[in-house]
Structure formats: C-alpha cells, structure tokens
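F.,

This is the one I mentioned.
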C-alpha cells in the first residue's frame, strides 16, 4: 500500500550534523594599561555579545572590517584569550569554565591556523619538531620513530615532500609554510579548525592552492572550519554560513548564498559594495 502520509521536505544534511561549537553571548575584554587602582581600571571590549554555532563538517565564515573583533573571537574559541562573559560549549561541554590540564582534550579537538605562516613557526626548530611537538603532547605513547613517520605522512597530506622534515621554516615559501602550519594543526586529529586569515599574507596564485587544500581536507577528514577573513570572495567560496561582524557584534548571519544574493543588513550591503570584484 502506498504511504499516504504527506512527506515533509527533507532537511539539509548539514542540519543533521551534530553541533560541535556553540558560542553564546560571548564578551571579551582586554585591559588597557594605566589602571593601577581597581576603580580606574580601563578596558576595551572588542567582542560584545556574540552568538553562533558550528556543526560537524560545516564551514562558518566570519567577515568584518579590520578591528571588528574577528581574531579575538577566534582566540577566545581556542582559549588563547579568556572570555569576560558568555558561554562557549563544545559538544555541549562548557569549555569556557575549564583551565589548565582540563582543557587538554579540547585542545586536541580544536586547533587554530594563523595568518602569518612566518611568525607562527618557531625558526629554530626543524619541521619534524614543529609537526611532532603536538604529537608528543597529545599522543605521549608514540615513540620518536613513529612520531617522525606520522609527521612525514602529515607533510605528504598537505603536499610537501618527506625531505622537508629536517629543514627549517626559513627554507620554505609562504605557501609552503602555511602548509606546515596546517600539518601541525592536523597532527592532533582535530574536528574543528579556526582559520584566522590563513591566505591573506600569500600571493594570489598561492591563495587558491591553500583554499583548495583546505577544501580537500574538509572533504576527506570531515573537518569543520571557522574561517576568519576580510576577503569576502574567499569566504563566499568556502562557507556554508556567513557571520558579519561590525564593531564587536554580529549584524547579520545567513547561509552564504543568501547573504551574498540578498544582504538584509545595511552594513553588510556596504561591505559587499566595497569589494570591486563582487
Ligand atoms: N591584546 C590586546 N590588548 C588590547 N587590545 C587589543 C588586543 N588585541 C586586540 N585588541 C583590540 O581589539 C580590537 C579587535 O581586534 P581584532 O584583532 O580582534 O580585530 P580583527 O577584526 O581581527 O582585525 P584585523 O582584521 O585587523 O586582524 C582592536 O581594536 C584591537 O586593537
């Protein structure tokens, strides 16, 4: 007998993935120098009540002008800066309340890659040490030879030859250094990568290669990304959902296609209009 129940529209598969990260009313403050007495303590508040979610395998783009608070949000998510208030949950656990060794399992699941692949790699360490260090911390049972093998596999995965292992960061181009940063982030087998302007410091031709690499890795490993960028074209290309940040607040959040086709907020429209290529 045919099923006569009216079928409801099937939800987007992305909506069925589990929520990894949930940021709720996040506020971050930085103290300013000069406030010796408690009463006169001064601060800036670059993030003023920001909320969003990231599902497994999803890319959420975070766009906004310089100084709007994008990097600060990324750093708060990976707990490089402490939240002043609000909540950060990872797989429903309040990670903003954790510190020290209790953060370790979270640091294994969420990694950050940075804008400047030159400054983010220790110039005195070989690539084997740079990529091997997170393995040492998070997989202490691995022997040195196993760590080296694993580092070689990671380098191959990001498109670098195995003889890179015994070389130093200065021997690589900007794009190659960013690949090393990605290999280091992947070493702990994370679920979510916070990518802070990962291609902004690179030549345009190299940018596309790194963007493609990030997409391939997402496909193969099911990674989720918080992709921070002021480059709206790159964000449109990569993101499922886009958050528009203005002076520390999210002024618009929408699926990428919808946001670019039909921006609802006046600031979003201005931001889109200011990009000649769009
Ligand atoms: N450690 C800090 N101490 C004090 N103020 C800071 C600190 N880090 C950032 N800020 C300030 O917080 C604001 C937001 O900075 P943030 O780097 O998060 O913005 P952004 O959107 O990532 O900008 P950009 O694209 O230029 O990196 C800026 O006004 C910045 O000067």
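My design for it:
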């Amino acid at each position: 007998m045919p099923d006569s129940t009216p079928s409801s529209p099937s939800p987007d598969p992305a909506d069925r993935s589990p929520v990894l990260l949930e940021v709720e009313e996040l506020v971050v403050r930085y103290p300013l120098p000069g406030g010796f007495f408690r009463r006169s303590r001064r601060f800036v508040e670059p993030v003023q009540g920001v909320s969003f979610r990231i599902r497994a395998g999803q890319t959420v783009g975070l766009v906004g002008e310089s100084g709007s608070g994008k990097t600060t949000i990324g750093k708060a998510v990976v707990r490089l800066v402490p939240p002043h208030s609000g909540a950060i949950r990872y797989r429903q656990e309040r990670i903003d309340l954790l510190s020290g060794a209790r953060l370790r399992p979270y640091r294994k699941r969420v990694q950050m890659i940075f804008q400047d692949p030159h400054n983010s790699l220790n110039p005195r360490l070989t690539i084997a040490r740079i990529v091997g260090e997170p393995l040492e911390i998070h997989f202490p049972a691995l022997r040195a030879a196993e760590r080296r093998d694993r580092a070689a596999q990671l380098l191959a995965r990001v498109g670098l030859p195995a003889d890179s292992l015994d070389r130093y960061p200065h021997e690589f181009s900007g794009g190659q250094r960013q690949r090393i940063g990605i290999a280091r982030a992947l070493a702990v087998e994370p679920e979510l990568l916070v990518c802070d302007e990962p291609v902004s410091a690179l030549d345009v031709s190299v940018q596309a290669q790194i963007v493609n690499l990030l997409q391939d890795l997402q496909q193969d490993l099911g990674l989720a990304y918080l992709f921070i960028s002021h480059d709206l074209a790159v964000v449109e290309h990569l993101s499922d959902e886009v958050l528009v940040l203005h002076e520390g607040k999210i002024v618009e959040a929408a699926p990428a296609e919808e946001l670019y086709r039909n921006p609802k907020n006046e600031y979003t429209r201005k931001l889109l209009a200011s990009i000649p290529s769009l």
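Residues 42 and 272 are 34 Å apart (CA to CA).

Talk soon.
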